[in-house]
């Protein structure tokens, strides 16, 4: 048996909290001296305490925990509760990380406002390209999964491609329904099967291009810089030509979504 002060040290829970749990009939002492009123706890009660603290981590109230302790919920069911909670928290963390990445990008964009990169813009002719593509309305965060499906199909023919291309067709409804097309350049034609198609991207006589570092799951701030250059240099976007973005994995980064990318916008003289 352990005095309440000793049990407090072992459990790393305050004496005040242990007394409160006693009042709630949540964790009663194994023995209370009827003459001195001293509370004594057994080592086995540590397991009860672990469950109480586990249920607290899951967000249950002390009253709910008391009822659950009386019901003696099986250990496997508790494990299941924790697995569900783990998935929920992981989802929240991923969403907050994505939000943090967006904030960093917006801050970077603000810091570069007004700073021209005209020396980095290149006008060039782009030849026709044979590609395997997959077009869908989706959000930015779905891009890796779209490429995974595209690459699985490409891999079924024993083929692979170093670079990846995104064709941005438009965004008229919502940020989660961006009309985009992921593509891989082909050296030879292969059979197509819905939703994957094989097609030839047309030749573009005049393409304004800008190389930058990016993450495909985040909005491209380089597009703004390229748009400023186009407007200031007497060009306009060519109608019905999607913005292209060609991405190559960034070798020096540990981030699997980090790329060196080239933004391409088809233009014509005003």
UniProtKB/TrEMBL annotation:
GO terms for molecular function: DNA binding; DNA-binding transcription factor activity. The keyword rRNA-binding does not apply. Residues 1-71 form the HTH merR-type domain. PROSITE patterns: HTH_MERR_1, HTH_MERR_2. Keywords: DNA-binding. The keyword Ligase does not apply. This is MerR family transcriptional regulator. It comes from Paenibacillus contaminans.
């Amino acid at each position: 048996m352990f005095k309440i002060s000793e049990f407090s040290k072992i459990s790393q829970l305050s004496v005040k909290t242990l007394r409160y749990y006693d009042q709630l009939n949540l964790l009663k002492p194994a023995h209370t001296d009827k003459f001195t009123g001293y509370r004594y706890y057994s080592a086995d009660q540590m397991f009860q305490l672990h469950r109480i603290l586990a249920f607290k981590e899951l967000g249950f109230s002390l009253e709910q925990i008391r009822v659950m302790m009386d019901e003696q919920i099986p250990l496997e069911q508790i494990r299941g509760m924790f697995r569900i909670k783990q998935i929920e928290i992981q989802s929240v963390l991923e969403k907050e990380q994505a939000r943090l990445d967006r904030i960093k990008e917006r801050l970077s964009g603000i810091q570069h406002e007004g700073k021209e990169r005209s020396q980095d813009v290149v006008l060039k002719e782009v030849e026709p390209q044979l590609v395997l593509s997959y077009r869908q309305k989706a959000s930015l965060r779905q891009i890796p999964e779209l490429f995974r499906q595209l690459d699985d199909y490409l891999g079924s023919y024993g083929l692979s491609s170093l670079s990846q291309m995104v064709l941005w067709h438009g965004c008229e409804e919502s940020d989660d329904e961006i009309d985009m097309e992921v593509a891989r350049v082909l050296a030879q034609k292969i059979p197509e099967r819905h939703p994957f198609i094989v097609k030839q991207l047309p030749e573009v006589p005049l393409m304004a291009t800008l190389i930058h570092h990016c993450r495909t799951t985040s909005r491209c701030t380089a597009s703004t810089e390229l748009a400023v250059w186009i407007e200031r240099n007497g060009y306009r976007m060519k109608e019905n030509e999607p913005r292209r973005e060609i991405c190559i994995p960034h070798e020096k980064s540990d981030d699997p979504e980090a790329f060196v990318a080239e933004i391409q916008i088809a233009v014509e003289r005003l």
